[in-house]
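Thread: Newbie trying to understand structure tokens

Hi all, I'm a second-year student working on a class project, and my supervisor (Dr. K.) asked me to get a predicted structure for one chain before our next meeting. I've only ever worked with sequences, so writing a 3D structure as a token string is new to me. If someone could post the tokens and maybe explain what I'm looking at, I'd be very grateful. Here's the chain:
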Amino acid sequence: MRKSFLILSALLLGVGATAQKVEFEEYTLDNGLHVILHQDKSAPVVVTSVLYHVGAKNENPDRTGFAHFFEHLLFEGTKNIERGEWFKIVTANGGQNNAYTSDDKTYYYEVFPSNNLELGLWMESERMMHPVINQIGVDTQNEVVKEEKRLRMDNQPYGQLLPEVKKNLFSKHPYRWAPIGSMEHLDAATLEEFLAFNKKFYVPNNAVLVVAGDIDKTQAKKWIEQYFGPIKRGADVERVMVEETPITKEIRAEYQDPNIQVPMLVQAYRIPSMKTRDARVLEMISSVLSGGKSSRLYKKIVDEKKMALQLASFSFSQEDYGIYFIYGLPMEGYTLNDLTKEIDEEIEKLQTELISERDFQKLQNVFEKNYVDANSDIEDLADNLATYYKLYGDINLINTNIDIYRSVTREEIREVAKKYLSKNQRLILDYIPEKKANN
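---
Reply by user tm_fold:
Sure, no problem. This is what the structure looks like when written as tokens:
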């Protein structure tokens, strides 16, 4: 039986190695805009996307929330797209669009039937060349962002989890604030400050354009030159890496959330950049600990001992630093300290014992599947191409990143767990219901 399992695993590895080769072509316009083309004739759709290398970490500490604000603001309209018409144009032409902001990037995309490629390129060039940034748009989007914050954070159970972890793990780096930022900062900002932010970051030499799907590359290149070529290059964006002081003593913190009844235990560790090998190993460690119902933490604490309603761990990967999370909701009769004790025992096992050959092979199979799934959707593939180029600095990782995971050893898993998941390098956050004042 064991021999058959290993043979099947080897076959899966072989399939994964060849099934997902992503072909692409890349070049750079004279104004610095990097262009990536990926042809896929399997369906008559096309994705046009632009990633700007600007996120919450690029903000002034007294003006947080700008990058996320611009995610909304740059849908307001352009010189040639009237205010309120953006989404109508997309929908009327059979398309859909969206955008998101992180600490490191802002990403916009449209999905159209392939016969509307020119429209998608024109709209993104309009956003880059001719955005209309005025007080009406700023005031409108200010209210939109405030409502989003109320819905997603202020009135959402556990909605302050990530901001509370970040502000305790980072004291110097701009990762210490959340991308949605401060409403007070946005209220205080002037129109001139928004215009300056746009001029600095939303320029061709700080962006990458990805066109993926059912395209004629020769025609696509002509349209790209026609619509994006005339856009003027901006000043080079100066990037300064802010170094954090190593954590050498356990940090204890508490947050009271009025929106919850069940307390949450949170263990968080500051980990290295997502571009490092160790960050990939930590992703594998996360899978060992809580990747599914057969994982160590879930099986022991949730399934067998029934001490927790929910338990999970994950790596929050970012360009400069990452965060490794472990969190759990205790069952009635158990405390946050009870969960901490059980979790620590499993981490110590990872730090002192090699995982079994069988568990290691299962782990490799999980990451082979993740590799296939990551690029199976044309929208995700376009995002991955942009991210690997702009944030990782190596676009071909879309094909070779899996080789890093394949090369990880059982000994490496043990050593990385020992290196980063020590008690004196972590935050313990007691995320609890709001305490009622005594009458």
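A couple of things are worth pointing out once you decode it. Confidence is low (pLDDT under 50) at residues 1-19. The CA atoms of residues 210 and 382 lie 6 Å apart. Feel free to ask follow-ups in this thread.
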